[in-house]
Amino acid sequence: MPQQPIVYDAPTPEPRARTVEAIQAEILERLIYSVGKDPIVARPHDWLAATILAVRDRVMDRWMESSRETWRTSHKRVYYLSLEFLIGRLMRDAMSNVGLIEPVRDALKNLNVDLGDLINLEPDAALGNGGLGRLAACFLESMSSVKIPAYGYGIRYVHGLFRQEMSEGWQVELPEEWLAHGNPWEFERRESAYEIGFGGHVEPVTDPDGTVRQEWRPNDHLLAVAYDTPIVGWRGARVNTLRLWSAQPIDPILLDKFNSGDHIGALEESARAEAITRVLYPADSTAAGQELRLRQEFFFSSASLQDIVRRHLQQYGDLGSLPDKVAIHLNDTHPAISIAELMRILVDDNGLKWADAWKLSRGVFGYTNHTLLPEALESWPVALLERLLPRHMQIIYQINAEVLTDARVRAKFTDAQIANVSLIDESGGRRVRMGQLAFVGSHSINGVSALHTELMKQTVFSDLHKLYPDRINNKTNGITPRRWLMQCNPDLTKLISERIGPDFLDDIDLLKGLDAHADDPSFQSQFAAVKQGNKERLAKLIKDRMGIVVSPNALFDVQIKRIHEYKRQLLNIIQAVALYDEIRAHPERDWVPRVKIFAGKAAPGYWNAKLIIKLINDVAKVINNDPAVRGLLKVVFLPNYNVSLAEVIVPAADLSEQISTAGMEASGTGNMKFMANGAITIGTMDGANVEMHKEVGAENIVIFGLTTEEVNEKRAKSEVPRAAIDASPRLKEVLESIASGVFSPDDPHRYRDLIGGLYDHDWFMVARDFDAYVAAQAQVDAIWLDKRRWNAMAIRNTAHVGFFSSDRTIRQYAQEIWGVPVASS
To answer: Which ranges does the record mark as transmembrane (predicted)?
Structure first.
């Protein structure tokens, strides 16, 4: 069937009335005719579905007009490839961005339904792990807000990241059933389905003109089917698309096997295909797990590139204009196989010469590096790639040959330097380095904070930076102020509007106007009252979920992030034990009441991270039940950390723990969310803390610990940390109590090896930063007791968060990497 031409100027429906009556009628219509429920018997989940559908209808017109406008104007599009999109709940986000929260609230109230209850009922989309996925979500919203035509491409995980529960203090991983009852935000696009191949072999084919080209003939095929979700920009400026791929079999059932009695075997193909989009980050500690991870990454990369090339050819007819009309951004190394796949599409499927294809390909790709940790820079066994993606392995070898020749001939690199830049790691088993592939195949490589970018040049990509010195640049991360201030903290947003006017809603830099009011006792009192209300809400949540009573008058000391040794939750809980000992030893002192709040998930195969969670829970059990503490210290670990839980915790935090080992956190975005909501940061000079220190001023942040240079120096000297422990009697006593089983009487040796690691090597500088951390916490106590000073610092943190808006970040990407125009603030 011939393809229908695209109509650029199709009639747009008249704008819908925004009255409460009109919205109420639409919700009722959706409830009856889409959900199929009589209002008399409708349950809360029915009202939720009806409300989402009514809001979605109002997004659709702008969504379609946004797409038409891009086709009409031929503006360059940005395609953001990410294995994670931690978008959270969407209904409140969409309502807020199109200005519908109050009319929807009133419409539902007329129907005896509470909007707040419905918002809390919507499941979180389980499409990410932490910072990487939440950053991608913020970026998509900001791209819509600054009117950049964009698609986000990812995977429609059925279960996503696991649901975390606790069993006797241990993390237990359970499937996250976010799609159990469907997703009213998404649209299946059956016409956007692409065949994805694996395995097979490569054959040379001679074309009629005598040209010999390579043809990949996979022996394993499946379909990638698109599901689209609208991403609404602030004030409906633009609606972009999050396109997620679902894996489906070519043949859902092998009837010959079924009819022969092999009823299970008949479904093998379906099971193998659907496994690809079943779970986010399957454990890769086994060969089967590694293969599934690689299949996931190629699956969504190939589907996305096929879709991008199809759309470009449909609009422009040839591929020569690809870099002028297409910017593809790789969010970390997970989509790095895209470099080889686009070359295959251009050379093998479209007949371009290698040199021309390589120029086009490098012109469209940009790559963001998110880590300096060697284990997080992906690499895959050559044997696995040769078996699973034989043509791509050929292409990688060809790319590598050109890079190494360039290094040898032009740059006069030594053998050691050539080994460093090679796409193939020859040490300890041959592996393909995906970071190197992403680097050489992109025209731009960016870090996510000023410190991280400089360390990239000095460490993981030092020789590649010497070979291509104009490619590395910095784009400090940001967060969307709509989600992380306006929506999660409406009372603070209202207070700020009353004090400096509402213009900051459209230009977050105007928050600096709060500086003039930071020392005003009246404003301080109002600001503190908002914080107190948020703390009371969190205290209720803690009691309801955990059965732990905490005082909202205590200092809420919060560390919420992925559990990892370099993020140093261990340092935090060790200091909690030290504080516990001090309170018991000196009950006569004027102690600042504290609630230490932790949340985060540990990777299923990361034993030490899971052990740290258990330690936190063991310590909490002892401290929270010791009458000698008199409620002056409480420790809480909130399970199943996700976006919605963060939206309650962040506005309630007094103190933001950003205490990673210096030089190891690429940026952080949790630090920015806390800052926006008036929390004071205690942290190391690491990641974006460095820029926060600059923006808010040294007097409004609490910095401690070793610098990156000092950490590297101690590691280089292979210093034995035992000396630091012996020099700190308080630390020594705490470590001995934990290691000897004081907090684990059921298993006295549980933490012996965990604590022993601090004596043996202390790679993450927990012991060596302990005394500095304790001193910094004492400084925090002193500031807390001076309420006027604390409140002024908190207000100035909110006032200076503008630089950390993802709108600013995206404008920099657009102007300096992607080459697309943006709307001014």
So the answer is: none
